[in-house]
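Batch 3, record 17
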Amino acid sequence: MPSVGERIRKRRNELGWTQDVLGQKAGVSKGFLSDLENGKRKVGADTLYDIARVLSLSLDYLMTGTQGETEPPSEVQIPASLATFAARAGISFRQALTLLDMQQQIIAHRSSTKKEKLDKVDWQKFYEAVKDFLQ
Amino acid sequence: MSRLDQEHDVVAMARELGLRGDPVEAVVHFCEERIDCWAADVGGVENVAALEQLVADRLQLAFEEACSDDDLERLIAKYVAQGEYVFAALRDELGPTTFGLTIKRRHCGPDSGDKYVAVIDCRGEKASRRFFTRWHEIAHLLVLERELDAPVRRSSHDPIERLMDEIAGRIGFYEPIFGLIFAREHTKPPLEFRTVEAVRNAYCGRASFQSTLFACQRRMSTPVVYVEAEVKYKAGEERRLRSKQRKLFQDDPPVAKLRVGLAVPNQSAIDRDFRIVPNMRVPEGSVIHKLHSDASMEQASGRENLESWEFSDGNSLPACEVWVDARKVGERVIAIVQPTN
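Prediction for the assembled complex:
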């Protein structure tokens, strides 16, 4: 059965990415990635999550490989509110993904009032704040 | 077992961390143990500033504080220049009711000391929450593996946020340091505000009075109830005033009175069923009411009997002589209430 590293390499090759590219996107070094793909290193859940995210795979699939044998690897789930906003604002799929990725960088948020879940983020406002940096 | 212990998200978090027992206590203990190990690795820590630095280093967390709008702009420019464009959203994200947030950087090495950046909003009145907010953000990272399943945008009413507050209240007032100071400053009941102030000054002047008070209250082996009193309507009146029935009040509008807005018992008070009920009216004879009515006074203390605290239906709290220490905070009065025997 393929290992975690082999699954990462397989998906990376499917996307046509070098280890450099994947490393940069996932925030890990090329050396680390090389060791990981060759089964010379273990990986924490935190880092594995980053890798799964940029490869558009589920953590489950990367860890067990089982999901991939019975069904296609899960794609990134775009919240309905973001999809609606993207359609209305005419932004590309890629830009929508970037917006989602940026929003997910905010991992904790201390507030005294009720905040909305990811699905109900004010995407318009968020987009306005970061639009200059969207590719 | 508390109500928080029964919240699905809290139970799930404890389970995913592989913990057994009461979920809240288990998760808090899990965080404390992580910190204990790190502290032991470096031969112990002497003060809370050193502790925070140690924990932040281990979590690859950097703190950034914005004390003014200019500070915030500098902060945004700094990280945007490094390719962390999400920081551009901080102007909106740090709204009037948001005290801080943590961002995971995309453009940094795996071993970078600032893989996570906690931005603490210290502008205006938010500055008073600075200390607790920093520990709240630390709490999120301490349980991060579970958190990754659901990036967080939650309110203070959310069970996980309440759990993070619980963790922050415990680890921010780290027992090996805080416990010694508390034992030195507080020798016998009752707990007094001046003791809390002395403990705060000795432990960390940046900690808020209220968070220090809760930390002291938690360590008391005798019953202590923290009370916040404010002028407000009865719950039913409040509901009707907000409903379509408000017209019914036009001839005889309800009068807002000094009521208990918040009552927080410590464990000993819960065990002994020593309680003060939120929203009940504060009697005019109470130390709290007298302080609220007297514009010339900022604080007051004294004895009274809780049997004079009546409910709307005419019943009252059980007879119990208590000692009350109270002070004004804006329009509210905060107090600690403790049985005298």
